[in-house]
Amino acid sequence: MSLEQDITRVVEAAEKLSDVVDTKIEDIDNRVAQKAQEIDQKNAAVESRLTAKEQAVDAKIRDFQKSLPLAPNTLVDSKYFNSICEANNTPTDVLVAHKAPWTAFLHDGTVGTGTVTRVSLDKLDEYGLTPNEDFQNRGIGYKNHGGEAFYGSNYRVLLFDIEITKGRNSDVNNGSFFVLSQGCDTHFGWGRGEFITQASCWVNVLECADTIRFYPSSNRSATIECNHSDSGKGWQYKHAIRSGWGGCHQPLFSGLGKMKVAMCLPYVGTGNHGDNMVWADSVGFPYTHTDTAATTGA
After folding, report:
1. Is the domain of 156 the same as that of 264?
2. Is residue 176 domain-shared with residue 265, that is, in the same domain?
3. Total domains, the chain
4. pTM (2 decimals)?
5. How buried is 56 (Cβ within 10 angstroms: 0-12 exposed, 13-18 middle, 19+ buried)?
6. By residue range, what is the domain housing residue 23?
7. What is the three-class DSSP state of 291?
8. At the top level of its lineage, which domain of life is listed (predicted)?
9. Which of 54, 81, 86, 242 could form a disulfide bond with 222, CB atoms 3.0-4.6 angstroms apart?
């Protein structure tokens, strides 16, 4: 037998062995793929059951939160904003518009200007604040047959048009334009309290340019933020919680730029009602305030 024949047989044997190996590998790959598919199917079934259970638990939590008692609002004049602006639907300089118990101020060298308008519900469309579906279903009554009034709704909306052109002396990139402040009260310690407090409100960001943000709840109450990502989304309900009470009640515009945003029905109280829409009137200063209320009721 010649060497060439031996080499040919070796090559043929190697090719057959390679074919066998390829077939085995393909078979293993197929079985692995089948097992992976079976595992994915089982995982999907488990995830589906877990999701269903999580949704059931979340639903029970929401139902439980709905059933919790609602504490009085620690903010006064949070429904009609009687002490903001002299008249409805009249843009007014922000610093001039605030009267007790509200205050507004520019902090630490911040330069800014702006107006606030106390909008009556019958003028929402005129100001680009038409209720979207979420607000219509949760925060305001349906219009009557004449399309004029909202059934059972009796409150006002604040529309801020703010521009901050210079930051603070301590931070040139961030100005602090405080609005709707309602005092720095003392209790048993700022940032103390082993109980849950909550804050909520409706907001509608119409315009937002540059880095400016609006915090309709800040410091004493849990932080709520509105920024450029909220622009154009229409009315949104925002809610936040914290432990105990902080320091001053100090909503503010922060950063640089221009922002046009509406808000209404701010609520600050104890407990946690989650994303369920809540609002309550005040009874003066029931929990956190130490001074006599300048204005009681809504």
Report:
1. yes
2. yes
3. 2
4. 0.80
5. exposed
6. 1-67
7. coil
8. Bacteria
9. 242
